[in-house]
Amino acid sequence: MSTATESRPSNVEYVEVTTPRVHNLHHVEVLTPKPDESLDFFTRVLGLHETHREGQSVYLRGAGEWARYSTKLTEAGAPGLGHMAWQVAEPDQVQGWARRLKEAGVEHKFEDGGTRFAQGETLSFTGPFGHRTELFYDFERYEDPNPSALLSQPMKFPTPGIGARRLDHLNITAANVDEARDWYSDVLGFKLREAARTPEGDIGVWMSVTSQVHDLAIMRDGMGERGRLHHIAYYLDTPETLLRAADTFVEEGTPIDAGPGKHGLTQAFFIYVFEPGGNRVELFSGGYPIHGPDWKPIIWDGAAIEKAIVWYGGQLPDTFFNIAT
């Protein structure tokens, strides 16, 4: 009688092979020429919490985050993105990514665990579009001295300022979005979720490695420059919290770039502001999850692009499309 499962031949050696996979966005390094003013904005106004200082950098986290930090604020001569850092899916995949990047012709550097604050062995490289990137697996978790009784929450939820819960995504720029889309897909394994498409090519793409509708967005850089940041985004629990944030920004004199409003793309409720150092910051609520492996990307083209950009709310200003750091 045959069985449903056949045994493996005893004379054949099987080796488990782990395919390296980017798992989630862990943190971003934000450069600022006004470190004190930027720190005041990210803590007192946005509501992030300081956890560590080292050199010219301050490490911050949201009340809903389990890691020691999600934002590294570093003093620099000009604003911009220092680097973006992604956690990989398994401990052995850091070395796996080293081999993958070598095959793709990407120069990279390996650093032992502990070289960088609160994270394990790290692979760092500069992507073909100029953005510094880190890949790692191990990181130190935040341990609150007065923990919440709600065990699924890393700390009691205080509400300083706006009370941003966590880092949600970032948006970078590239002179050729089609090339950037294909590289992040083919080399790093990002999945295309939505795109704004013209006959000349994509002007923006929204991609993810998680079930979020996007972890990374890429917009066309009208200046044709490399390595620029359009914005970083923090998650708010509700659209009502976002409206309260708008009141806070007006009270604080924080320059509002766009919003409040809602994008058709990603179904995001949004408001964009400039922090004192000059970087654009989005507060984000809404969105939608993607669970199926056979997701068909949503393509906005033709007349639909207008509603993709703004579903409702005021039209985005020229600064939204022209300014990146």
TrEMBL record:
Residue span(s) of domain VOC: 24-138, 166-286
Under PANTHER family, the record lists: GLYOXALASE FAMILY PROTEIN
Family annotation (NCBIfam families) = catechol_2_3
Q: What terms describe the molecular function in GO for this protein?
A: catechol 2,3-dioxygenase activity
Native source organism of the sequence = Actinomycetospora rhizophila
Task: Give the family from UniProt.
Answer: Belongs to the extradiol ring-cleavage dioxygenase family.
One matching Pfam family is Glyoxalase
Q: Which InterPro entries match?
A: Catechol_2-3_dOase, Glyas_Bleomycin-R_OHBP_Dase, Glyas_Fos-R_dOase_dom, GlyoxalaseI/FosfomycinResist, VOC_core, Xdiol_ring_cleave_dOase_1/2
EC numbers for this chain: 1.13.11.2
What protein name is recorded for this chain?
Metapyrocatechase
The reactions it catalyses are: catechol + O2 = (2Z,4E)-2-hydroxy-6-oxohexa-2,4-dienoate + H(+)
Keywords attached to this entry: Aromatic hydrocarbons catabolism, Dioxygenase, Iron, Metal-binding, Oxidoreductase, Repeat
Q: Which cofactor does it need?
A: Fe(2+)
Keyword match Iron: yes
